[in-house]
Design brief:
Elements (H helix, E strand, L loop, with lengths): L8 E10 L3 E10 L8 E11 L4 E11 L2 E12 L7 E2 L3 E5 L3 E13 L2 E10 L3 E11 L3 E13 L4 E15 L2 E10 L4 H5 L3 H4 L3 E11 L3 E12 L12 E12 L6 E13 L5 E17 L2 E17 L8 E15 L1 E5 L5 E14 L19 H4 L14 E14 L5 E12 L20 E10 L2 E10 L4 E14 L2 E10 L3 E13 L2 E10 L4 E12 L3 E11 L6 E11 L3 E4 L2 H8 L13
Antiparallel strand pairs: 1-2, 2-3, 3-4, 4-5, 6-8, 7-8, 7-33, 8-9, 9-10, 10-11, 11-12, 12-13, 13-14, 14-15, 15-16, 16-17, 17-18, 18-19, 19-20, 20-22, 21-22, 22-23, 23-24, 24-25, 25-26, 26-27, 27-28, 28-29, 29-30, 30-31, 31-32, 32-33, 33-34
Length: 607
């Protein structure tokens, strides 16, 4: 027999069509492999296939792979095609240095078309049993999910351990939404013991955020509470982030005023809380007015605003003022234009030249007495080069009497506007030396900022490249370098090489690849190496074999698994029987995250 849509075939000793939709089979062999290929088969005393609900049930079922029995069950229920179906999924097997041998048994519950849950039982030979329930929902207004990992008794630590996460987005009205993103973990070593990969074992804190947002034609209103559960106990108490309990933010913008004028208002009130150090309420407001004119690719925009910030503090040092305020004007003049010309033998390319200049004036105000709740210095790039405050956050407003100058040149396809090449160069020139600093920040008496350069090559003959470079002319030294090159002739064929450097912080190589080597065979791997520490941070290698109706993936990985630099090794094997289920760890999702640009080939019909 063969099902009408090609989602299954087989043979049976007898067959009865019941109620015109249910096929009852006795002495059955069943597979979704194409004719002439029986790499995997279900062999059963009986199988019933409901062709309307697309579900099958079998009794005394044996699963053979390459002629070798790998599973027996007295009863099984399975989808015919790609239907969702409640039931026991195939177990998974793995191992890790900190958890030992791992056996995973998941059970899936298809509650409704917009609700489902997975209950996963995990046994770690070095730790004990862990229960991992997950519930997902999708309603007319909300989407999200709950995830719990709970180990009633960790045999190595002699205590209960676990992790809880809730993510939710609710759309009350088209422009009114609520957001929840919250997590909690029982101890600071949980991710080091149960995470896989250095990106999963280096969590510093968990975010606990609840937010309401309302957008109108001219206004954005946000109310939020935000807390952080600090995981890294090595983080000093006075360096831990403040909780926002709560924060209210409002932003209004009007761009259609007469004669090219526009106006805006930004304001926020925040209650900052932390167990150590000053805390209290900060109110910050900035109304502004702008004027803009432009024609034929050129524009001039002038703007002026007034920023007022006041603090009501507590838990401060004895003798310090608990009521502080800061008030100052901010004036800027921004201008730029775009020139373009056609180039190439057939005039099929467009080259642009896009210079921009921004003059900024902000008077100096002594701000050393103001505490730092949420303010920091961002990385310098082309976006930050043209901002009106060199700090992120309201606790510092940088004084400025300066000119920012930048130029960008692009090479575009004249037919569709696709960008092939982009090159940018920019720098700030100081007419007065900036004096405002953060605690511990060394004043810089240089007459210019660092020089910033960026270069991007986009999809030119299967090649992509990006260069970001920051040069300190006063010290004649490189501050930051990021170089990345990618060759990607197909979705499953990609090679990446990258170099990252930050002065006094890191220097790394990152090489990854996924490549077909023979028919149906792929190899992949990644290597992340720290030159500063002379140590490999992460490395894995694996292979994949994919035929018409099954695939096998194998990955072995070694990575830094703790803040002290200890390493761990993991092993993952995944067997996928297309059209039935999979056995093992979801390595494909891991590969998509770890190898930039990698995407496995589409699965065969019926998978």
């Amino acid at each position: 027999f063969e099902l009408v849509d090609g989602s299954g075939r087989g043979a049976a000793r007898s067959a009865i069509l019941r109620d015109e939709t249910v096929l009852d089979l006795q002495g059955v062999r069943y597979t979704v492999c194409p004719p002439g290929n029986d790499d995997w088969q279900l062999k059963a005393d009986s199988i019933s296939i409901d062709q309307e609900s697309r579900l099958g049930t079998g009794r005394n079922v044996r699963l053979d792979f390459k002629g070798v029995p790998i599973l027996y069950t007295p009863w099984i229920s399975f989808p015919v095609g790609d239907q969702r179906k409640s039931g026991l999924l195939f177990p998974a097997f793995g191992s890790g240095g900190k958890t030992g041998t791992q056996i995973v048994v998941p059970w899936y519950w298809n509650i409704a078309p917009n609700y489902d849950a997975t209950f996963t039982s995990r046994w770690f030979s070095s730790r004990g049993y862990r229960i991992d329930p997950e519930f997902r929902y999708l309603t007319e207004r909300s989407r999200g999910g709950f995830e719990l990992q709970y180990l009633p008794h960790d045999s190595e630590r002699d205590e209960a351990r676990g992790l809880y996460e809730w993510r939710n987005v609710t759309l009350f009205e088209p422009r009114f939404r609520g957001l929840v993103n919250a997590g909690y973990v029982t101890d600071d070593a949980y991710f080091e013991d149960f995470g896989v990969g250095f990106e999963g074992t280096s969590v510093v804190f968990l975010n606990q955020l609840a937010e309401l947002r309302r957008d109108t034609q001219n206004w954005t209103l946000i109310g939020r509470t935000q807390n952080y559960q600090v995981i890294d106990n090595a983080l000093a108490d006075d360096e831990r982030p403040y909780s926002l309990l709560p924060q209210v933010y409002a932003a209004g913008r009007w761009t259609d005023l007469p004669f090219g004028f526009g106006s805006w208002l930004e304001a926020e009130a925040t209650n900052f809380y932390r167990e150590l150090g000053p805390e209290g309420i900060r109110f910050d407001a900035q109304p502004g007015l702008s004027w803009r004119t432009g024609r034929r690719g050129a524009y001039v925009e002038g703007s002026g605003s007034w920023r007022y910030t006041t603090y009501s503090l507590s838990n401060t040092e004895p003798g310090t003022d608990q009521s502080l305020s800061r008030s100052l004007p901010i004036v800027s003049l921004d201008s730029g234009f775009v020139l373009e010309r056609t180039t190439g033998s057939k005039q099929q390319r467009v080259q642009t030249l896009e210079p921009r200049m921004l003059y900024l004036y902000v008077p100096y105000r002594d701000q050393d007495a103001i505490p730092v709740f949420d303010t920091a210095t961002p990385d310098l790039n082309m976006v930050e080069l043209f901002r009106t405050n060199r700090y992120v956050g309201a606790d510092r407003v940088g004084d400025a009497n300066q000119m920012a100058v930048g130029v960008t040149s692009r090479l575009l396809d004249a037919g569709n506007g696709r960008q092939y090449l982009s090159a940018t160069l920019g720098q700030q020139f100081y007419f007065e030396t900036p004096r405002v600093t953060l605690p511990g920040e060394t004043p810089d008496d240089a007459s210019t900022s660092d020089l910033v350069a960026e270069l991007e090559l986009d999809a030119f003959k299967d090649w992509n490249a990006r260069l970001a470079y920051q040069w300190d002319p006063s010290a004649s030294q490189t501050e930051r370098t990021e170089v990345g090159v990618q060759y990607r002739p197909a979705s499953d064929s990609v090679v990446n090489a990258a170099y990252r450097y930050r002065r006094d912080l890191l220097e790394q190589f990152d090489v990854s690849a996924a490549w077909p080597v023979l028919q149906d065979w792929h190899l992949f791997g990644r290597w992340v190496y720290s030159l500063a520490e002379d140590k490999t941070l992460d490395q894995f290698v694996g292979f994949e074999y994919s035929s018409c109706c099954w695939s096998l993936r194998f990955i072995t990985r070694r990575f830094v698994s703790s803040r002290t630099g200890d390493s761990d090794t993991s092993l993952g094997i995944q067997l996928e029987l297309k059209g039935l289920s999979s056995v093992g760890v979801d390595n494909e999702a891991f590969l998509r995250d770890a190898i930039r640009g990698y995407s496995a080939l589409p699965s065969a019909p019926g998978s």
